[in-house]
Specification:
Layout (H helix, E strand, L loop, with lengths): L2 E11 L2 E10 L6 E9 L2 H9 L1 E2 L2 E2 L4 E2 L3 E8 L11 E4 L9 H4 L28 E4 L4 E3 L6 H4 L2 H14 L6 E5 L3 H12 L4 E5 L3 H9 L4 E3 L4 H8 L5 E6 L4 H10 E9 L11 H6 L3 E4 L6 H10 L9 E6 L3 H9 L6 E5 L1
Helix pairs in contact: 4-5, 4-10
The protein binds zinc ion (2 copies).
Length: 347
């Protein structure tokens, strides 16, 4: 098996991320060798950086971060349909493809999913923040050669949002609320509009995030602490047909139940660690459908297409590009949600 010394972004523990040498190996008969161009820092990467864990996945040994990636193929196995020089977006999912969930098309729920840059299993699954990475051919989604890689690297978070919209069902003509206007909330706003929603409202406690929500097409963006707004949206059983809860904040999780009309749907998209005193009475008497939404399946390819066709323009969400050598600065910026949205790393 060939091996190659590369530089990679490795998280050692909370607040300790380094750009350091790493010897990668790849199986040239089965795997694609990809030269990584750029990667987006995701919320889960930030969690590993700040807390040494993301949700229930706790970092035990050093791990290469990163799962939002775009690159150019250096070498591809024969008969893979891929060729050197081809630009691809990386689907970070590696489901087992044999379990009952995978066979039912729910690969995102696969219990053996080896998602890139995740400490869920030990040994951890390395991510793709490195100069070169090895991938299964199925993980490579070809893009137009002149496609804008700054935009295409949003394919992964956009896929998360398109999956959430699928969870909600038909949005045509619907009145939608998105709580939390970070990168995921903002992409959910744009994806809901692209899916036919009539109006998409947003809430966020940060003024900067509210302004991004408006740039991504929200009809209005308000502070969730606005009591009058709370009253208006709660009247007559609730104002919204569909709510996407993208903050994970306790106050948002409990208030969207009031804002959703009888028979409406709530999709939980934000990952929160806190437990919630939940208003089950309202959920019950209004027959609200509450659905979780986790990662994505074939929505990844849809996301690449939507970005190529400029059906969605994620550009307002890109706050800065930082070279991998400066990775600590990149993570400090990405953690400062008051000032920055998406930070991209260049390799
Ligand atoms: Zn992500
Ligand atoms: Zn499976």
């Amino acid at each position: 098996m060939p091996s190659q010394a590369v530089s990679a972004v490795v998280i050692h523990k909370a607040h300790d991320v380094r750009c350091e040498p790493y010897v990668m190996q790849w199986n040239e008969d089965e795997e694609v060798l990809l030269k990584v161009e750029r990667g987006g820092i995701c919320g889960s990467d930030i969690h590993y950086y700040l807390h040494g864990r993301a949700g229930m996945s706790v970092l035990k040994t050093p791990m290469i971060l990163g799962h939002e990636l775009i690159g150019v193929i250096e070498q591809a196995p024969q008969h893979s349909g891929l060729y050197p020089g081809q630009r691809v977006a990386v689907n970070p999912s590696r489901a087992c493809n044999v379990c009952a969930l995978c066979l039912a098309g729910k690969q995102n729920l696969c219990r053996s999913m080896r998602f890139m840059g995740s400490a869920q299993f030990h040994p951890h699954v390395n991510g793709g923040f490195a100069q070169y990475i090895a991938l299964n051919p199925q993980q490579c989604v070809p893009c137009q050669s002149d496609a804008d890689s700054k935009k295409l690297v949003f394919a992964e978070p956009l896929a998360v949002c398109i999956h959430a919209i699928r969870q909600a069902g038909d949005l045509v003509g619907k009145r939608v609320l998105v709580t939390g206007a970070g990168p995921i909330g903002c992409l959910a706003i744009a994806a809901a509009l692209a899916s036919g929603a009539a109006d998409v409202f947003a809430t966020d406690i940060s003024e900067r995030c509210r302004s991004l929500a408006l740039q991504m097409g929200a009809t209005s963006a308000s502070d969730p602490r606005d009591e009058e707004q709370f009253q208006r949206w709660s009247e007559n059983g609730g104002y919204f047909d569909v709510c996407f809860e993208a903050s994970g904040a306790v106050a948002a999780v409990t208030s969207v139940v009031n804002f959703t009309r009888p028979g409406g749907t709530i999709v939980q998209l934000g990952m929160g660690s806190a437990s919630v005193d939940y208003p089950i009475g309202s959920l019950l008497v209004k027959e609200i459908t509450l659905k979780g939404s986790f990662r994505f399946t074939e929505e990844f390819t849809t996301a690449v297409k939507w970005l190529e066709q400029q059906r969605i323009d994620p550009s307002p969400l890109l706050s800065a590009e930082v070279h991998m050598e400066d990775v600590t600065r990149a993570f400090e910026m990405a953690s400062d949600k008051e000032r920055y949205a998406k930070i991209q790393i260049l390799f």
